[in-house]
């Protein structure tokens, strides 16, 4: 399944609002078999070069804090960013969409420190209800492509975040569901946002169910066919 988290794009949007110029997109992927189609569409939609690297390492250092360790998966991110810095020596910072994960944030900070780059975490500890509203009001259009939480089911796949707002607020109030999906409750696919020069159109989809029960279904929307459209 190919997804991109809406939080990362709002983070990039905030960076642009602060006159931070975005020069590239990166992706570190777990397998050679991963489909690059969607990632390439994002690169074309943004008008930015895409750099990607297969994850060859594994999670050796699994504590909250991270120190350099050969063959750890974090070193794949380090190698990719080091390569990009050689290609773009004027790069000064790395923007990430971390909201609550100290595990993720600390690893990004470690890599940035070693490469003399500034880690930008504009969304860190943000109020998720406020952030959710900002995502919608900023013009980011995202659809639900995976559900894995109490109160969510296959009927919600393909719906926009705007359509899902009231339900997610209700689930957050009742069961503590993270409204921005930070707990893995759902994943999104962004089809349009302010800095896209083209929008992504979803032509064909297929629902794939991992598990179905009375409490919390786990299912995702396979994006079978996509194309770009001028805005």
TrEMBL record:
Top-level EC class as recorded in UniProt: ligase
Q: What keywords would UniProt list here?
A: ATP-binding, Ligase, Nucleotide-binding
Concerning its family, UniProt says: Belongs to the Diphthine--ammonia ligase family.
Write down the EC number.
Answer: 6.3.1.14
Q: Which gene encodes it?
A: Bm3081
UniProt name for this protein:
Diphthine--ammonia ligase
Q: Does the keyword Ligase apply?
A: yes
The organism sits in which domain of life?
A: Eukaryota
What pathway is this protein said to act in by its record?
Answer: Protein modification; peptidyl-diphthamide biosynthesis
- Give the organism, scientific name: Brugia malayi (Filarial nematode worm)
